[in-house]
Specification:
The complex is a heterodimer of chains A (about 80) and B (about 140). Chain A is mainly α and about 80 residues long. Chain A has one domain (about 5-75). Chain A has helices at about 5-25, 35-45, 45-65. Chain B is mostly helical and about 140 residues long. The chains are: A mainly alpha (about 80), B mainly alpha (about 140).
Chain lengths: ~80, ~140
Amino acid sequence: MVQHSVIGYLVWAVLFGALFAWEALGLVGAAGVPTISDVVRAVMRYPVGRWALFALWLWFGWHFFVRGWHFLLQDTS
Amino acid sequence: MPVSLAVTLMLTAYLLVMGYLAAGLWILRRPPEQGIGRPVGRGARRPGAVTARWPGAVCARRGWPGLVRAVAGTALGGYLLLMVVLAGYSRVVARVDGHLLASALTGCAALTGVALPVFFLTSWLTVRRRGERRSGRRPTRSGPR
């Protein structure tokens, strides 16, 4: 297993922290700060927006949980 | 993974996500138009119906046919969109053999088959609860937005 430096993990922590902090600002109603839900809801009014979101969700599930398996989710090994 | 491929992948993903969010922000900040559709807001939606400003963009049917059409249409459209993107990626960008695409076709189909009943059930429950709240049969839940 490849050893990664702690700095690498810290960078990810800072990025996710910033993301969650921005979302928290939107949730408490800070002026002019939409939440991710607000933005996604606006796009999901249209079919293409819903298709794109479903495709992203489907890709996420396939890539992390299914990819490399065989059909009907069986691992032949 | 080659550096050029990694950079291309991440840049493309970033641009797609940013484009999606930018579209949402643009829609949010656009002034409500008169005519085609009603202004969209939390209190303006009828249960079981979806409205939009673009003519023919979203169905406005109610009841079971509308719900089935919305759920199945979303799943089918999303699946086909993903297949197009993955086909383009596997043939043009990564230039790998057909195993990746075959895995995507079957794996995503299996995932969709598993998720579709749950998706349908939660959509139905959401619409039903919204309708009950509007008719006054249930108290509304207060909370952030």
